[in-house]
Amino acid sequence: AGDAAARAYAPHAARTWRPEVLTALGGFSGGFAVPIDRYPQPVLVSGTDGVGTKLKLAFALHRHDTIGIDCVAMCVNDVLVMGAEPLFFLDYFATGKLDPQVAEQVVRGVADGCAQAGCALIGGETAEMPGMYPEGEYDLAGFAVGIVNRDKMIDHSAIAAGDAVIGLASSGVHSNGFSLVRKLLSDAGRSLDEPFGDDRGVGTTLGETLLTPTRIYVKSVLTLLNEFPIHGMAHITGGGLTNNVPRMLSQRRDVELMLGSWSVPPIFAFLAGLGKLSDDELFQTFNMGVGFVLVVPAETAEAVIARAAELGECAYRIGTIRPGTGQVERMGDWRERKS
């Protein structure tokens, strides 16, 4: 089974390879040449993450071909926050009894995510551990390494009062908060098979809507970094906007977040209604429709938003940097979308 899975992985990995890849898949490690011609002051930036309990939905729906995109996204979007270009990725797939067909679907998704991010899948580990996982279940984690020139590294020190906060739209719940999602559905007796299509045509059932993979922002944001001054960035993962935005702030800056300035996908109102969740709980658990945040000089905000749209992103001006103590202050009502 392991040999069959390894043979199935090879073509998926090969389609992600870049000229810098030095080793074939299947060795003890992966080799990658540093592109020193483009990065004369190279700083390597690393990130690791998993998919979490969103995997439980993949098991329930017998859909394993997109969960790998989530795994890649959670890692490369984190690396991107420092202004780094993701270079390569490795995955870790562990299960009690290996099903080569399932494993191939998972790694196909990983390769799809790498292709979206422009990084190479140069290796990984498939571990069969009897007794460690329930039948038909597995765990998935990943590791990304990126690169940035030292003088171009985003350290958030340039963030200043008056800067504009730009939000890039998420594709849905992404890969955070699924322990709460699953409890809400269970307590309410809701089925993953019930119809649920949102206003953007994402998903035809509740399960498919929730399984929508995490958006990968790498190519769009790297282009914006080359064209505009960007003072800070944040990837909106576990902790939501409430806890992730302050990670880029000093103790002398706040973000005034204008609710209603962006479109919140219907899935969040649905979940809020199921659990009668407070706004505080929503904003510290879910991304609420914003998957990535940029801080830019106010005078460039409209140009950044327009360019992001050309690159395929839905971007909104969602707030302003103010003097403060490193907090997020929410203003308005997210249920009232402004025109």
How would you describe the overall organization of this protein?
With 339 residues, this protein is an alpha+beta fold. 32% of the residues lie in helices and 23% in strands. The chain contains eleven helices and ten strands. The protein has helices at residues 2-14, 55-61, 67-80, 100-117, 178-188, 206-211, 218-227, 240-244, 266-275, 279-283, 301-310, and strands at residues 42-50, 85-95, 120-128, 138-149, 164-169, 232-235, 253-258, 290-296, 315-323, 328-331. The strands form two sheets. The protein has a six-stranded mixed sheet. Helix 4 (100-117) links the parallel strand 2 (85-95) and strand 3. Helix 1 (2-14) runs parallel beside helix 4 (100-117) and helix 3 (67-80) runs parallel beside helix 4. The protein is globular and about 60 Å long. The chain starts with a helix and ends in an 8-residue tail after the last strand.
